[in-house]
């Protein structure tokens, strides 16, 4: 199994969610997060004073899928989240040793 974590722009969440449903993802976890990358944030002006916004709002999505779906899920997120501009985000793929559905006791891929 693979856990796929994606950091994306907040306004792309609905498009990513729809694309994930199309490839067969039945659930995901979403977090509102803040961060910065190479750009280090951005400068904004408020009441004639310039200040640096160090952390930019982002959304983090997590899904766990069977190994066979991982490439399709990564491709779906990448296509849906891409704007072609700085700050589109990142996707991380991690191995998952075990999963357990608490309600039924199912384990492994059956728990997904």
Distance between the termini: 9 Å
Query: Biggest β-sheet, characterized?
Result: 4 strands, antiparallel
The residue ranges in which pLDDT falls below 50 over 5 or more consecutive positions are none
Helix content: 10-25%
Number of strands: 6
Structural class: alpha+beta
Strand content: 35-45%
N to C succession of SSEs:
EHEEEEHE
Shape: elongated
Sheet with most strands: strand arrangement: 2-5-1-6
Q: What is the CA-atom radius of gyration, in angstroms? A: 17 Å
Tally of contiguous helical segments: 2
> What's the mean pLDDT score?
91
Q: Overview of this structure, please?
A:
The chain has two helices and six strands. The longest helix has 15 residues, at 67-81. It has helices at 13-22, 67-81; strands at 2-8, 29-35, 42-46, 49-53, 56-65, 89-95. 22% of the residues lie in helices and 37% in strands. The strands form two sheets. It has a four-stranded antiparallel beta sheet with strand order 2-5-1-6, with helices on one face. Strands 3-4 form a two-stranded antiparallel sheet. The model has no long low-confidence stretch (mean pLDDT 91). With 112 residues, it is an alpha+beta fold.
Topology at a glance:
Elements: E1 2-8, H1 13-22, E2 29-35, E3 42-46, E4 49-53, E5 56-65, H2 67-81, E6 89-95
Antiparallel strand pairs: 1-5, 1-6, 2-5, 3-4
Helix pairs in contact: 1-2
């Amino acid at each position: 199994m693979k856990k796929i974590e994606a950091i994306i722009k907040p306004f792309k969440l609905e498009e990513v969610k729809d694309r994930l449903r199309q490839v067969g993802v039945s659930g995901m976890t979403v977090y509102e997060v803040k961060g910065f990358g190479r750009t280090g944030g951005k400068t904004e002006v408020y009441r004639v004073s310039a200040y640096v916004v160090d952390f930019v709002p982002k959304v983090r999505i997590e899904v766990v899928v069977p190994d066979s779906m991982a490439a399709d899920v990564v491709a779906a997120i990448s296509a849906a989240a891409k704007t072609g501009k700085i700050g589109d985000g990142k996707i991380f793929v991690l191995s998952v040793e075990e999963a357990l559905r608490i309600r039924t006791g199912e384990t492994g891929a059956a728990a997904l």
